[in-house]
Amino acid sequence: LLxxxxxxxxxxxxxxxxxxxxxxxxxxxDDLERISSDLPxxxxxxxxxxxxxxxxxxxxxxxxxxxxxxxxxxxxERLTTxxxxxxxxLDLRYADFTSADVEIKAYSVMGGQTILLPPEVNVxxxxxxxxxxxxxxxxxxxxxxxxxxxxxGFSLWGGVGIxxxxxxxxxxxx
Length: 174
Fold this sequence. Notes:
The chain is an alpha/beta fold.
């Protein structure tokens, strides 16, 4: 909700970051309501019943082809991506994290993929490149309490690019 409001220009960048930090530190739905009550589509009385479950594990394949996962979608606790003479884009900037800890296994063989992360997530990269590349520059801390994304895997004659990127005005920017 906060990401959507910021992308639509309803929240200035500094207020968005402040509210996002408070959202990750929230302990109750009432805490979240206080942070977002002035925004359209606020939680209000539409509270989820019971505890939320992580989205099911997902496999994204690009064999002589490509994949794209962009916009708003539920990020599972475990996600595997594989490119073979193909390419892919995995954009988590507008996605809904369904787990506090997310593990992405990324494999590229004679292909490439890019993983775009929002600046606030905590990132650990454990991948390796053999005659190819597996970027580690995006690794590091984000906002306290934000989800942790661990990226493992390898690339062989290919590449796995991992970048932190701010959200733009629209969901379709790349």
